[in-house]
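Subject: Interface between my chains keeps coming out wrong

I've been trying for a while to get a sensible model of this assembly. When I model each chain on its own everything looks fine, but I need the whole thing in one frame so I can look at the contacts. Pasting all components below, labels as-is. Any help appreciated, I'm running out of ideas.
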Amino acid sequence: MIDPVVGGQFLAPGGGPVAELSRLPPDRSTPRRRTWYRQPALMAGLTITVIIIGMAVFAPLITHYNPIAQNLNDTLQGPSAAHWLGTDELGRDVWTRLLYGGRVDLRVGFIAVLFPFCLGTVLGSLAGYFGGWVELVIMRMVDVVVAFPFYVLIIALVFVLGPGERSIYIAITVVGWVSYARLVRAEILVAKRQEYVLAAQAGGLSNLRIMGRHLLPNVISQSIIYAMSDIVQDILAIVTLGYFGLGIPPPTAEWGSMINEGQSFLSTHWELTTIPGIAVVIVGLGLSLIGDGLADLHRPGQS
Amino acid sequence: MTGTDSTGTDGAGPRGTGRDEAGWATAAGTGPMLEVTDLHVQIASRRGLVRAVDGVSFEVVKGDALGIVGESGSGKSMTLRAILGVLPPEARITSGQVKLDGQDLVPLRQSDLNRIRGPRMSMIFQEPMSALNPVMRVGPQIAEGPLVHLGIGRAKAAERALDLMRRVGIPDPERRYRAYPHEFSGGMRQRVMIAIALACEPEIILCDEPTTALDVTIQDQILRLLARLCRETGVSLVFVTHDLPVVAQVCQQVAVMYGGQLVESGPVREVLHDPRHPYTLGLVRSAPDFDNVRESLIPIPGSPPSLISPPDGCRFHPRCKFAEEDCQVIEPPLKLLAGGRATACLHYERCIEALEAERSAQ
Amino acid sequence: MTAASLPAPAAPQAPDQGALLTASDLQVTFAVGSSIAARLRHETRVLRAVDGVDLEIRRGEALALVGESGSGKSTLARALTGLVPLAKGEIRFDGRVLPARRKHSDQRRIQMVFQDPYSSLNPRLTVGGMLAELLRVHHVVPRGEVGSFSRELLGLVGLGEDALSAYPRQFSGGQRQRVAIARALALRPDILVADEPVSALDVSVQATILNLLRDLRAELGLTLMLISHNLAVVRHLCDRVAVMYLGRIIEVAPTETLFSNPQHPYTRGLLAAIPKMSTAGDEGAPAIAGDPPSPLRIPAGCRFRTRCPIAEPRCEQEDPALRISADDSSHSAACHFAFAAAGAAAAG
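Reply #2:
Try treating it as a single job with all components included. I did that and got this:
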C-alpha cells in the first residue's frame, strides 16, 4: 500500500515549499497579484494614464469646438472663458485640439506597439529556442537594425513610404521589433534550461507546443513590461514625425504638428508649442510609472 | 523546550577528559570554547514573526567537534549565523548568549565583532563558488585575513598563504597562488575556503554544510582533511549538516535540531545508534544507511512545523508515534541523561523500547 | 543470459529474453565554446560526455547508474530518454532500433523524473492541466476519461484529487516529486528513468519517494533506471548497478555483488569513500586522491589511471574494455587487473 500523504492534503503547512528541501532553493516567489494596488508607482501611473485616456476618449463631451474648424477672426487669442487655452494661428481652440490630438497620438501609439511586440516576440522565441542557424540569422538582422539610430531609420522609412498612419505603423514595426526579439531570446535561453521543458520534450510534445504553451507564458511578462516604455517611445516617435511634417497630415490635430506650428509664435504665444509638449511629457510619465510598477511587482521577493 | 535547567549544557566533552553526570568537563582549565545559552533568533517576514531559533543551548569544548544535524527549517544554519553575527538583515537575536571563551558576543557591535571574526572564529560555507570572491586571486584572498587582523606585512602574509595552501593539499601552490576561483574544481575551492578559515589560526571554525555540494570521493578527502587539521591545530569545530553519516565521521558530539529547537544531544555514535528522541529515531530510520540495508525506509509522516505558529507543547508531537496527551501541552525541557546525553522528550523510554523490540525481532 | 557488454557481434542474435533496452557504443558529445569561425574550421573542442557505452536494461529490473559529477550519467540517461542526440551508436527498444527523431509511440515508452522538483514542473500549469495535455496529445485514454485517469494517476502517487486544480507552487518539494512521478507515469511507459529523484529533498522525505518508487515497481511491473550518486539509496532500491567514470561504464554487477566484491579500483574507492555511521572518523589517506580529470582532456589508455592506486605503465598504453568475470557472468569490469584471482574471460 503506497503510504499516502498525511491527512490527504497536499498543501504544505505554514513552512511553505521551502520546508522539505535540504538546501534552500533560489527565491522563486511569483508576482504578488493580490497587492498590485499597493504599488505606488503603478497606481500613480495608472491614475495619470487613465485620466488622460479618459479625457481623450470623452473629448467630444468635454469640448464643443471642432478641432479643425478655422475661425480667422479669433486667431491667437490668449486663454479666456470661451477658449480655456486660447486659440492658435488659425483660430482653432487649443484645448480642443489638445484633446483630439491626444486621441490620435494615444491611439496610434498603442496600436503601433502591438506589431513590433508580436513580431519581435515570435522571432526572439525562435532564435532562443532553436539556436543554430535560425538564431544566427535573426540576431544578425537585429544587429543590422540596431546599427542605425532609431530616428534616422524611422524618418527615412516614413519619408520613403509617404506620410500617414500606415507608414508610421510599418516604420515602427520594422525598427521596433528588435528590442523585443533580444529580450525574449535572452529569457528563452534561460527558460529552456528549466527541467520542465526537458520534461515536455520527454513527453513527446512538439516544439511549437513547447514554445507556445510552456515557454512563452513564462517569459512574456518581461516583454509586456518593456512594451509599456515602448509605447512612450512610439508616441514620441509619432510626435517627432509630426513635428517634421512626416506624421499624420494636417489639418488633423496632433501634438507633434501642433508643436511644429506653434514654434513660429514662441516669443509671443509660447503656450501653443509648450502645452502639447507638456501633454507628451505627462503621458510619458504615466506610462513609465506603469512600466516601473509592473517591473517592481514582477521582481521576486519584494513587496 | 523551555530553555535549559540549571546546568545548561548538552554534554559536549573533550576527548579523553572526564565528564561528570551533569556534563561539565572535569579536566581543569578546559572551559567550553563556545557556550550558547538560550539563543533566540527571530526573522521578520510578511507572514509574521518567524521563530527560527527558539531557545537553543549547547557547548563546544576546546578541541572538540560538535555536529548540528537537522533538516531544512530546523534552524541549524541560522544558529551558526547568529554565532558568527552574520544574520540576514531581517533576522535578529532576540535573547540569549553566545560566549566565545567566556566573552558574550551578542551585545557587541559589528566593529568589535570584526576583530573576532577571522582571528578567533571563522566559517566555511556550502557553496565555495559564491563564498569566494570571483574577481580576486586565490592567494591574496587567503592572505587577506592575516594581513588585516594579524598586522603582518604583505610578504609574510603571502608566505603564510602559500604555506596554508600546502597544508590543505592544493597541488602546485606557487603557481596556483595567482589563480582565480573559477579555475579550481569544487573540491579545490573548498580547500581554499578551509585555508582562508584557518589563516588567522582561529579558536573555532563554523562549518555550514561544507561538503553537501561535493562528490562523494571529494567529500571523503575534505572530511579527512578537516579531521586532521583539527587535531593538528587543536581548533574546535561546529559542523552543521543534514547528512547523518557525515556527522558520524567528523564529530565527537552531535546535537539534533527540529523546528528551531534542540531535541537531542550527546556523543555521536550513541545518539545515532541508540536515539532517545522520536525525531532522531525517525531520521535514523528514514535515511538509507549503507551498512544496514533495511527492508523498508520508514519516513517521518507529515511536514516540518510552521516556525511562525509552532504547535503547542512539543513541536514534534503532530508527527510523533509515541505522542501522548501531555506532549500536546507541555514544552519538554532538555533533560540530562547518563553518559553526557540529553533529550527533549517526555517519553524517551518509548524510543528505547522500540529499538529493543526491533533488535530482538531480527 | 549474459550481461552482454561487449560490442554486439556482427551476426544478428536472437533477442535476449528480458532485454528491454539495449544501448550499443553510445557516444554523446558537446561542442564547447566555439565561435562560428572555429566551427567552420572544424576546430571545436569536443566534450565527450558519453564515450562509448554499451548497456542493457532488462524488463522489470531496477538498474542503477552510479557516478560522480562529470561521469556522464545524466547525459546517458537523457540520451536513452531521447532528449539528447547521439553522436554515435544506437539504441534498441524491444529489438527495434530507435531513430534519432522518435515517434510518439516510442517516446512514450521511456519517461523521466528529474532531480530538481522546483524547475521540473511548469509553474503556469495546474497539475491537472499538465497531465491532461500529455494524455490528450498521446491519446492515452479516450477524451472523456482524461479526468478520471488523471485522478487515478494522482492516487497512485498518494495525492488527493484536489491536487488537480493546484499549481506547483502550492506543493512542497516531496509532493512535487510525486507530481513529477505521476506525470512520468501518465504515458504508461515501460521504463522510468529517475535522475537523482531525491537528492534535492530532505532526508525524511526521501524515504517516502524511495518507498513510492519501490512500490510502483511492484504494483505496475515498472522497469526502473535510477541515476544516483548516493550508493546507500542504490543499495536500497536496485538489483543491478553500473558504475560510470568520465563517460564510460567501468563496472556492472548485481547490487550485492558490487558491494561485496568490487573489482574496479574506482568502485572500491567509491565504496570506501562513503561516510558510514558505523566507521570511525579517520584521518588516513582518502579513498581516492586528486581531482577527476576534465572531460575535455580524457587521459589516454585507462581513464582512471591518473588517480588509480594500482596503475601500471600498461594502463597508459591500453584502454581496458569491459571484461566479464569467468566465475560470475553477471559481473564485468573495465580494468586490466579485475578478477585477477578468479581469472577473467579476457576479451581484449
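Reply #3:
Confirming on my end. Chain B touches chain C through 48 residues (CB under 8 Å).
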